[in-house]
Amino acid sequence: MRNFVLMLPDQLFHIANPEIQEYIFLHENEDEKKLVLAHKEILGIPSSLIATQIQGRKKAKHKIDLWYKTKGIVYPPSLNLEQSSSRATAKFKSILLNKGKIGADLTGGLGIDTFFLSQLFEKFYYVEPNESLLSIAKHNHELLGANNIQYVNSTAEEFHHQTKEYFDLIFIDPSRRNNQQKVFKLADCAPDISALLPAFLKSSKKILIKTSPLLDIQQGQRELQNVEKIFSVSVNNEVKELLFLISNKEVSISPLIEAVDLNSEGGLIHSFSFTVEEEKKTIVAFSPPLTFLYEPNASILKAGAFKTMALRNGVYKLHPSSHLFTSENRIDGFPGKTFKVLQQTKLNKKVIDLFPNGCANILTRNYPLSVVEIKKITGLKEGGKLFLICTQSEKEKHVLVAERV
User: Fold this and answer.
1) What's the rounded Cα separation, in Å, for the pair 198 and 205?
2) What is the mean pLDDT of each run of 10 residues along the chain (405 residues)?
3) Domain residue extents for the chain
4) Are 28 and 55 a contacting pair, CB within 8 Å?
5) Number of C-alpha atoms within 13 angstroms, CB side, residue 231?
6) Residues 6+ apart with CB under 8 A from 251
7) Which residues have a Cβ under 8 Å from the Cβ of 152 and sit 6 or more positions away?
C-alpha cells in the first residue's frame, strides 16, 4: 500500500521554485545520501527534501520521462515509483478506451494514470485520501497542462457514495493490504473491488481495474462480473500489470484475453488475443527440441496462451509444463525469444569446455535443478553470448547449447 510522508504546502512551493529546480537538475547524478550528510540545508531548505527530489528523478528517468523532463515536477517523500504506472502502461490505457464526458480515477496516487486518462474526457475526477499527495499531483498536472481535472480529497468509497455523477469510466488501482502475500484475491485489496463493483456498475458504463501481475487471471475473473476483456501488459518483455475491463451490460462468459507487449514509449511491439475456451479446446502437438527453440514473451506466458499460441505459429510444444516451443525451420516474427540449438549435451564438468571463457547464460525451464545448482555442477559463470538451456520434453530431460537469434 502507499505510504507517503506528509509534505507541507510551503515545502511544495519551495521545491517547485526555479532556483531549487535548477539545482536538482544539475545535481541529479549525485549520491543523495552523501548530499544529506554534507549539507544540512541547500538554498534555504532542508537537504533531505532536495535528496528526495533527486531520488525521485532517478526513478522517473526511465519510467515516466514526461515527469523527468519537466522542470518544476515535485516527487513526494518515500516515493515508491516501482508500484506506480509507467508512462508506457498509462498511455496504453488511454489508447484502449473510448472518449467520453465524465471519468474518474478513484485511487489517484501519483496521478500518472489520471493525467493520461483525463485526456479522453471533458471532465475527470482525481480521488485521493492523502491530502499532501493530492496537492503534489495537482501541482504536477497543472504544470503539464491538464486543466479538466477535479480533485477530491476522499476515499474511493466515500466519493462514490456521495457523488451523483454518472460516469463513462471508473478507473481503480487497488492496493494489496499485505504486500508479503504471494497469492492473493481482489478481496484482499483496499478498496475491496469485489464489494464495491455492484455499486460501480450502476453508476458507470465501464470500469477499468488495474491489478498486480501477481494476481491469477482466473482468480480475478471469479471475483468479478461482466468482464468484457482482460489485458496482460508487459513493457519490454516484463509483465507490469493486469487490466480487467468491465461493462455495465452482460457480456460473454469467456472474455477476450489480450497479451500486449509495449516498448518503453508505450508503442505496441506485439499483441496476441484469445479466449480461455479457445485455449481449452486447442490440441497441440509435442516434440523434443528441434533446430529452433522459442520462449513466448512474458505477457503471453502470464495470459496462459500456450496451446493457441503454438497452433497459430505452427510450432511444437516440448512438454505440457515446459512452455518452450520448437520447430525444424525458423518461424519469423515469433512473439518472444528465438534460439538456435547448436548441440545437445550432458550436464557435467565437461560442459564448461563448450563455452568461451567458461561463461554462459543459463536458463532452466521445467527442470529439477536451479541455476545455482547448475553452476556448481558445471563450473560455469554467468555471461557471454551462448546459452545453456536446461528443460524437458515429454520423454526426457535436455541440456542444450544454443545461441539467441
Assistant:
1) 12
2) 52 82 92 90 89 90 91 79 81 93 96 96 96 92 96 96 96 78 75 91 96 91 93 95 93 88 92 94 96 97 96 96 96 95 96 95 96 96 96 96 96
3) 9-80, 84-276, 282-404
4) no
5) 24
6) 226, 227, 228
7) 125, 126, 127, 128, 159
Question: Is the CB of residue 230 less than 8 Å from the CB of residue 257?
Answer: yes
The overall pTM is greater than 0.85 = yes
- Please report, as a single letter, which amino acid is at residue 316: Y
The CATH superfamily assigned to 9-80 is Methyltransferase PG1098, N-terminal domain (1.10.10.1110)
CATH no. of 84-276: 3.40.50.150
163 exposure class (CB count in 10 Å sphere: 0-12, 13-18, 19+): middle
Location of C-alpha cell 487471471:
217
